[in-house]
């Protein structure tokens, strides 16, 4: 079966609306946390988030198209166009049947339903957009990106909550391995910073309450962590079969080497205390890649900055790697971009790809007070030069989803 390589990158994030800006800010330890501007949060207990800033959908699509699409779909189209340009891949009538899309989202257009409900109450049925359904259906992102770009290959969407972005890459990897496509646009998107959704997360007690210090509110693995900071954005990749990429002379950033999906079967929001699902996903991802645990150079953690989640992830890593766990740099992108939900795994995978390319591991910022139960090397506060040939990317979602990706340096002479 063909090897699966990464040839294009695209990003809309709270710390940059292109890959170059995102990565420079990630290395610099820049926080995307700030007071909420997308709605009036002055009466809320939690008033901060990691919003995408300065995004104009008309930079990426026709004005009429933009008006009909939800924010999450706009993000995904923008990230897709970036990735296609980066990969120098043009979609044509000839190659369209062999190009697919797997763009996942945790909440999809759920905020659109909220907005439509307000309009229904205020103006009656004629106040509701005829485009509501096609924006909130589960397959909306992949379908509308496909229609905008003209792809005709495999088209899929799946919702694994906060593991959705990672699973999009894993799903696309298997499609290419099976010979169903030559190239697939894969990634995650989310834009759910809306009054009702935000209120529910707040009532759940999942969010950080550091309204006075939004840039330091997300603090994975720190003893003083008090919850995650809501984020939004999109990251998409161009994945190709090795033969297709080499045949057109594409630049290859890295290789998707495997991954594993497991479940906890325990609780809808809390991680399983023994981390058994995490352990199985970590081990399975390494095994599927043909590597060993000794080959793992860096881990990009899910690391939500919640009291229970960070402990469970740390425990899982220690049980898999033993004493070697203390020698592996672990980076937490959510310390800078917040929790981008359905795009969370994809943004960590992007950081992994860039770490492999440049030999730099981005920092886990806001790490000031060590937690005895989180005692590994989290690359605190400053980026680090570190050669990464093989990385694991963790993503865990509500409902007990565990998805770990394995991404490595591309070696033309490797076995794949």
Question: Would you mind describing this structure in some detail?
Answer:
With 416 residues, this protein is α/β, with parallel strands linked by helices. The protein contains 13 helices and 14 strands. The strands form 3 sheets. It has a 10-stranded mixed β-sheet, with helices on both faces. A two-stranded antiparallel sheet has the order 2-3. The chain has a two-stranded antiparallel ribbon with strand order 11-12. Helix 11 (307-321) links the parallel strand 9 (298-300) and strand 10. It is globular, with a radius of gyration of 20 Å.
The figure for the number of domains is 2
Query: What shape does the CA trace take?
Result: globular
CATH class of the largest domain: Alpha Beta
Named CATH topology of the largest domain: Peroxisomal Thiolase, Chain A, domain 1
Write the layout of secondary structure elements.
Blueprint: E1 4-12, H1 19-28, E2 34-35, E3 48-49, H2 63-68, H3 71-87, E4 99-104, H4 110-123, H5 132-136, H6 140-149, E5 155-156, H7 164-177, E6 183-190, H8 195-204, E7 233-241, H9 242-247, E8 254-263, H10 276-289, E9 298-300, H11 307-321, E10 330-331, H12 334-337, H13 344-358, E11 360-361, E12 384-385, E13 390-397, E14 401-408
Parallel strand pairs: 4-5, 4-6, 9-10, 9-13
Antiparallel strand pairs: 1-7, 1-8, 2-3, 6-7, 8-14, 11-12, 13-14
Q: Key features?
A:
single chain; two-stranded antiparallel sheet; Peroxisomal Thiolase, Chain A, domain 1; ten-stranded mixed beta sheet; alpha/beta; 416 residues
Give a concise summary:
The chain is of the alpha/beta class and 416 residues long. Helices cover 34% and strands 18% of the residues.
């Amino acid at each position: 079966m063909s090897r699966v390589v990464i040839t294009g990158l695209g990003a809309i994030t709270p710390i940059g609306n292109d890959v170059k800006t995102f990565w420079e800010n990630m290395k610099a330890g820049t926080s995307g946390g700030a007071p909420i501007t997308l709605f009036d949060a002055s009466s809320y207990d939690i008033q901060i988030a990691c919003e995408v800033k300065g995004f104009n959908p008309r930079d990426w699509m026709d004005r009429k198209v933009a008006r009909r699409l939800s924010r999450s779909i706009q993000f995904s189209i923008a990230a897709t166009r970036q990735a296609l340009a980066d990969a120098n891949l043009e979609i044509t009538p000839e190659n369209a049947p062999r190009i697919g899309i797997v763009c996942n989202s945790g909440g999809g257009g759920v905020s659109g339903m909220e907005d439509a409900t307000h309009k229904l109450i205020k103006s009656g049925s004629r106040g509701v957009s005829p485009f509501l359904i096609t924006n909130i259906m589960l397959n909306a992102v992949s379908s509308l990106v496909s229609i905008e770009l003209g792809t005709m290959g495999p088209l899929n969407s799946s919702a694994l909550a906060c593991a959705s972005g990672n699973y999009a890459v894993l799903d696309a990897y298997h499609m290419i391995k099976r010979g169903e496509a030559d190239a697939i646009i894969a990634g995650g998107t989310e834009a759910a910073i809306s009054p009702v959704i935000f209120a529910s997360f707040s009532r759940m007690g999942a969010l950080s309450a550091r309204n006075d210090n939004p840039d330091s509110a997300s603090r994975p693995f720190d003893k003083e962590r008090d919850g995650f900071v809501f984020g939004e954005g999109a990251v998409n990749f161009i994945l190709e079969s090795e033969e297709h990429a080499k045949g057109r002379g594409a630049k290859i950033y890295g290789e998707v080497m495997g991954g594993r999906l497991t479940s906890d079967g325990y609780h809808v929001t809390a991680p399983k205390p023994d981390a058994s699902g995490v352990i199985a996903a970590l081990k399975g991802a390494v095994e599927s890649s043909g590597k060993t645990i000794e080959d793992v150079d860096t881990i990009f953690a899910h690391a939500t900055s919640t009291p229970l989640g960070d402990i469970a992830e740390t425990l899982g890593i220690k049980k898999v790697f033993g004493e070697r766990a203390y020698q592996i740099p672990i980076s937490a992108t959510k310390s800078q971009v917040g929790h981008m939900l359905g795009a969370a795994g994809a943004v960590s995978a992007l950081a992994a790809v860039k770490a492999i390319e440049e030999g730099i591991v981005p920092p886990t910022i806001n790490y000031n007070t060590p937690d005895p139960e989180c005692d590994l090397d989290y690359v605190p506060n400053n980026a680090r030069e570190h050669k990464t040939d093989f990385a694991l990317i963790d993503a865990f979602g509500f409902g007990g989803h565990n998805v770990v990706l394995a991404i490595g340096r591309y070696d033309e002479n490797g076995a794949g």
